[in-house]
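FXL22 protein
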Amino acid sequence: MHITQLNRECLLHLFSFLDKNSRKNLAETCHKLLEVFQDPLLWSLLNFHSPVELKKDNFFLGPALKYLSICWYSERVKVCNIEDWMKNSFQKDFCNRHENTVSDFLLDVCNRCPNLLSLTLSGCGHVTDDCILQVLKNCPNLKSLKLENCVRITDHTLEAVTLHGGSLRTLHVDFCRNITQAGLERVRQKCPSVMLRAERSANMIPDSKPEKKLEKASRKLVQV
């Protein structure tokens, strides 16, 4: 029996065991398999390990997407998670190449995947508070939001959770050093049902520009 003689349910089951690249390669062999590849039911879960993967055409975004993970573990993460004012010209040029890659992808998710239940972002140094706000607004069923080592995330994201995270049950903001204890306490007070975790976040010293540090030092000297 040839694979194309299988019914759609069997083909969907077969595709479910393949990774994104294998699914794409198989879909290019005939029109029937391409239709299976494009079936939204096949794409309820997506895992990405590099922003470069977000630009490929080996996946399909649709209302069936429930679980999305973008976890970038690379030496490049250390560069992208350095504050802009600390980067040299080479590092800035490197980061500019994919400045909006993840953010643009998440906005696309907001438009196409309203039933998203879980979002995990790790090492995404360019993701901003506004981007997370849009996800919370456009994906009202979101139950789990896990952010790790996302340097641009601040208390504005925590405030967005209290305003638009009505379905949220799990919130992780580990290694997000620019949030504060006050922001975390606000979430605990306003969203007591949310399981909040913030390992090495507000207890870390948040990054600030050199002039701000000098300003604080000057104030201390004046007080003395």
